[in-house]
Design a protein that fits this description.
Blueprint: H1 3-27, H2 35-66, H3 75-92, H4 95-100, H5 109-120, H6 129-141, H7 147-152, H8 162-169
Helix pairs in contact: 1-6, 2-3, 5-6, 6-8
Length: 171
């Protein structure tokens, strides 16, 4: 192979990496939750609010119907009873809130990488996909760094060598 062909091949690979960097920079989203997780969190919180509201109404109706049996009660007694009902509801019915709290976790770097990769993989050919995933992984680890600036910097350009990108992908 002539020196000229080797240089052309190297330039083609660099152009390919530059195009992939541009795609990652344009399409990358640093999200805490996927849209589906966000919707499920909102639905769960709504269910918890409805359950607590229904339980409060039931306890309140029970208290209204039972209190006259014990005679007249002062305003302070009614407030104390109402407060006790609220405490009982919160103490007894922790299950709905225990369903919501596990949903409130941030995505890991791997989950964020996979989510962004799924969004972008159809825009490149099969041969470019491992490089795309490696670049997305780099962006997920340090979302505040601009990959195109790192590529342009002579000190960090070697990070974008095809071999190093692929090695990083399987670390």
């Amino acid at each position: 192979m002539s020196k000229k062909k080797v240089e052309e091949k190297k330039d083609n690979k660099e152009n390919e990496v530059v195009e992939l960097i541009g795609l990652v920079e344009d399409k990358f989203k640093n999200v805490k939750y996927t849209p589906l997780e966000f919707v499920s969190i909102l639905v769960s919180i709504s269910i918890v609010i409805v359950v607590y509201s229904v339980l409060f109404y039931i306890f309140y109706q029970i208290a209204i119907s039972v209190l006259p049996v014990f005679g007249e009660m002062s305003t302070e007694g009614q407030v104390a009873t109402l407060f006790a009902e609220i405490v009982i509801i919160i103490a007894l019915f922790q299950l709905p809130s225990k369903m919501v709290i596990p949903l409130l976790k941030k995505m890991t770097i791997k989950e964020l990488t996979d989510w962004n990769y799924k969004r972008m993989k159809n825009e490149v050919n099969d041969r470019q996909r491992p490089l795309l995933k490696a670049l997305i992984q780099m962006k997920c680890k340090h979302p505040d760094f601009d990959l195109s600036e790192l590529f342009a910097d002579k000190r960090t350009k070697s990070l974008f060598d095809e071999q190093k990108l692929l090695e990083r992908l399987y670390e």
